[in-house]
Design brief:
alpha/beta, 14 helices, about 20% strand
């Protein structure tokens, strides 16, 4: 579709240090992204500017320095740690005589490599096509030509118009298929809500240790690696929690600063697991010097997907890399868990996490001691079916004395079903 240079594996990285905090990026993160993409970093060009240049993003002198570096090191791709406009990409490619990618294109490439499920591949393709559609607006010169040849001369579509139409058609087709997947997910969520099963969703900055924690808690074998965006496709597993019973734990895609909007839109169905969760486990790599900035970025994305109102439990992960830090639970003034310090890699503090999860989720639970007459076997059977009995014994009068724990919604539903007899049995 484009008369562009082929990409390659030998890359020159370009990082511009802006005085404006809004445009600032982390060069270490760029190197991790490049490594995750399987590209070899052969050189880095840095610059400082107050604002991007319209023509090359960097100044003309720095752009020539980048071109000279590419030539000297034999690189076949230039990767910017920033978002470039289509015209900037085109101008830089003409100067450097090689492929030029920006930060968004790099992240999209990593996502394309990592997607495993049919849904994940569709979501990545949708994001790539939306990104590509902006590149068509000021595409290369051949897109402005009309088709030539016998029967094709005269008025008709230009190549640019044809490509736009094909793109729109493909985007529409993928969107329909993703809408179908989203309906299936919504059906699953409705089923869990009807069964009153709480959902706990893992969120956090990419490479914070979410998948490792997920595997440790559930004994699953989700792919986990020390690289950015190791997880793309969401995975759900059932877990058992004391005094709560069954809960669903969901592992989700990691966030990153300036996460491309095309990705947020494409992964809407996946991120909805986060939006509709009962509790978010915000996993933080506390061994990272920039953990506070990373937490802010995660909260920004949560706000963007309208999940900022969901209660959070902060997970201070990777304490094995910190000196003198032991597993513990931090509580607020009311005694509720707000932070759990642990090491998912070494399995330290997992019991504390499960205890904190039980405390957070059982806020919607009720605990009662009931004295049920021997003749009311119907209520006894219903309590058995709900698996909510902690302890039971018989009184001297022959009544059944039970201690129960159940979801508050289950209590009200059952009480209504037996015509409020449950309420009269409370000791």
């Amino acid at each position: 579709m484009f008369d562009r240079y082929e990409g390659g594996e030998q890359a020159v990285l370009v990082h511009v240090d802006f005085s404006d905090e809004q445009n600032k990026e982390d060069i270490d993160e760029l190197q991790m992204l490049v490594s995750s993409a399987g590209v070899n970093n052969v050189g880095i060009v840095t610059a400082s500017r107050s604002a991007p240049s319209v023509r090359y993003f960097v100044g003309s002198g720095k752009a020539q320095e980048i071109a000279d570096t590419v030539s000297a090191l034999g690189a076949d791709v230039v990767i910017f740690n920033h978002a470039l406009s289509p015209s900037q990409e085109r101008n830089l490619e003409k100067l450097c005589l090689c492929r030029v990618l920006d930060r968004t294109s790099l992240i999209l490439d990593i996502f394309a490599q990592r997607a495993r499920t049919h849904e994940g591949k569709l979501q990545v393709e949708l994001a790539q096509l939306r990104h590509l559609s902006t590149r068509l607006i000021r595409g290369w010169t051949h897109l402005e030509r009309q088709k030539g040849g016998i029967g094709l001369r005269g008025p008709g579509e230009t190549q640019l118009e044809t490509d736009r139409r094909l793109l729109r058609g493909r985007i529409k087709s993928i969107q329909k298929r993703l809408d179908k997947v989203q309906k299936q997910r919504e059906q699953g969520r409705r089923s869990r809500k009807r069964a009153e099963i709480p959902t706990v969703s893992l969120v956090g900055y990419t490479n914070a240790g979410k998948s490792t924690l997920f595997n440790t808690i559930t004994n699953a074998d989700v792919y986990a690696a020390d690289q950015l965006f190791a997880t793309l496709d969401p995975t759900l597993r059932k877990i058992e929690l004391a005094e709560v019973g069954q809960a669903i734990l969901a592992d989700t895609v990691g966030f990153i600063r300036h996460l491309p909007h095309d990705l947020v839109a494409a992964f809407k169905a996946t991120l909805q697991e986060t939006q509709e969760a009962t509790l978010l486990l915000h996993v933080v790599d506390y061994a990272d010097d920039q953990y506070l900035e990373n937490m802010d970025q995660v909260n920004e994305v949560l706000t963007e997907i309208e999940a900022d109102e969901v209660p959070q439990l902060i997970i201070c992960n990777k304490i094995d890399r910190l000196e003198g830090v032991e597993p513990k639970i931090d509580r607020d003034d009311e005694g509720n868990p707000v932070r759990v310090w642990l090491s998912a890699q070494e399995g330290k503090g997992i019991d504390l996490l499960k205890s904190a999860l039980s405390e957070c989720l059982r806020t919607e639970m009720v605990n009662y001691t009931l004295i049920i007459p021997a003749g009311d076997g119907k209520v006894r059977g219903m309590l058995y079916d709900l698996n909510c009995i902690n302890q039971q014994e018989y009184s001297k009068e022959g009544d059944w004395v039970v201690e129960i724990t159940m979801l508050e919604s289950d209590w009200h539903r059952l009480d209504k079903k037996v015509e409020n007899r449950l309420s009269t049995y409370i000791n």
